[in-house]
Amino acid sequence: MARTLDEIARYIELSDPKPFRARAFEKAARAVENIDDDLDQLVESGAIYDVDGIGKATGQIVEELVRTGESRYLDELRAQYPPGIFDLLRVPRLGLKKIGILFSELGIASLDELEAAARDGRLAKLSGFGPKTAEQILKGVEFARMRESQFLLPVGIEAGETLREKLAEIDEIEDAEITGSVRRRFEVIRNVNLLLATKKPDTVARKLEGIVADLVQLDEMTYKGVARGEMDVLFHLASPTDFGSEMVRTTGSREFVEAFGRIPKARTEKDAFRFAKKPFVEPERRETAEDLNAKKRPKLITIDDIRGTFHVHTTYSDGRNSVSDMLSAARDRGWEYVGISDHSQAAYYAGGLNETRLRQQQAEIAREEKNVAPMRVFRGTEADILNDGRMDYGPEILSRFDFVIASIHSNFKMSQDEMTDRMLRAMDDPAVTFIGHLTGRKLLAREGYSVEYDRIFEKAGQRGIMIEINGNPNRLDVDWRHIKRALDRGVVFSINPDAHSVSEYNAMITGTWVARKAGLSPKYIFNTRGVDEVEEFLRERKARA
Ligand SMILES: [Zn+2]
Ligand SMILES: [Zn+2]
């Protein structure tokens, strides 16, 4: 529902010079995301129109979507533009407004057309563009090509689940599971793999044509199609007696499957491992053959091991929900504690808090925490690491917090040496508890800055500073590939959502997948500890500071 409303907003922004119309749909999308009650009932009773953020026009669309699953308005908007026009968004610095102008003035709706217009001078002549912009866009097209048809993991999961629902209506399919990189919880995916159990592959193949576009047969039992006009989908058909063995074959990376060797015929995946006399390896750990051959395998952390969370923003800085909303949503998730951490003053673009605002925020937390007892509320900050490695707040202010997340949000262009020194200096500040998003990367959007992991991990281990596993699906930072080398140095991690809204607490799930991919058991994760232990740890650290 939210995705549809966002899509409408994007189309409006292409064509409509008045931004508030698009904003209204975006607002409605966020409102829908945060609805806990049953949407069907809200529509049935008409209460949907009372939800904050939903107006008359947007409410009607929600109603239509609930009743029919479709929006005629969106269909009309889609018909006005060629499919794939939003691919242009992959070009850095090209926003919807500019894309709208490019389409209406020059008919540009694809990367190829954009590249041609940048080369032959048409772009440079367009008002508001100029030769310099044309040159930048040319570079941007190259960048966008490199990232073509890659998607963030949650997009793949959602596409896969939507397809499974449709597959459930085909009688000849006995079972359907998502496999491949999505099942391995790989952070960026190129396609969605679905394994289908059927005794009638030919009939199923014919019916798949109604589910995806451009269906082609790759080999006897494999078909490829396109979902949502952009995403490759691979359908692997298998007889029910082979379903388990095919789960193994289509889930693992090439390295894993080759190391596995001959896969015995089996109905279930567990059986396939058992018949092959191999230890069961969790899907997230099937990137390499490491666990197949290991004597001792880690007991992987699960989301149920998580007992609390840190790194939560509110409307005091750039969050979208109030202190009260963020606290009660944390309580509703069953957590024993939550750590609020708005931005510090240097992060002016994110509404960083000066001293006055900080006092107001602390007072509000003090008022609100009673309502969520016995859940414990920790006071923290996500404080900027300044260019010279000093913390954005001085010692007096920092000493008021229960915990301090030190993050870099500026001057990403420093050399690796400078950046590493900057971070190491921040880690000398005795108030620092966590390092936030270690490299500042945004998946498919920007590379992070570069730091020397080993030196950071070494110091973190020595000083008992925890490294955050930022669970925001756009970040997933620190990368799971680097985690293992921190363990020998005694580093403890914390899975943090970096939540800017109630729904972004879901980042705890994606963050947990990162920890699982790294092979972490609960003992390496700070927020698997109970509230008393956590409180004691933070108090002791503070006393030493
Ligand atoms: Zn941050
Ligand atoms: Zn943050």
Q: What labels would you give this structure?
A:
545 residues; 43% helix; single chain; five-stranded mixed sheet; binds zinc ion
List the helices and strands and how they pair.
Elements (H helix, E strand, L loop, with lengths): L1 H14 L3 H15 L5 H7 L10 H13 L3 H8 L16 H11 L4 H9 L2 H4 L4 H17 L4 E2 H15 L5 E7 H4 L4 E2 L1 E8 L2 H8 L4 E7 L2 E6 L3 E8 L4 H9 L2 H7 L8 H7 L14 H4 L14 E5 L10 H10 L4 E7 L11 H14 L7 E9 L10 H4 L4 E5 L8 H13 L5 E2 L17 H11 L2 E5 L13 H4 L5 E4 L10 H11 L13 H14 L1
Parallel strand pairs: 4-7, 8-9, 9-10, 10-11, 11-12, 12-13, 13-14
Antiparallel strand pairs: 1-3, 2-4, 5-6, 6-7
This protein binds zinc ion (2 copies).
The site of one zinc ion has 5 residues, from loops.
Question: Could you provide a short overview of the structure?
Answer:
With about 550 residues, the chain is of the alpha/beta class. It has helices at about 1-15, 20-35, 40-45, 55-70, 70-80, 95-105, 110-120, 120-125, 130-145, 155-165, 180-185, 200-210, 245-250, 255-260, 270-275, 290-295, 325-330, 355-370, 395-400, 415-430, 455-465, 485, 505-515, 530-545; strands at about 150, 175-180, 190, 190-200, 215-220, 220-225, 230-240, 310, 335-345, 375-385, 405, 435, 465-470, 495. Strands 8-9-10-11-12-13-14 form a seven-stranded parallel sheet. Strands 2-4-7-6-5 form a five-stranded mixed sheet, with helices on both faces.
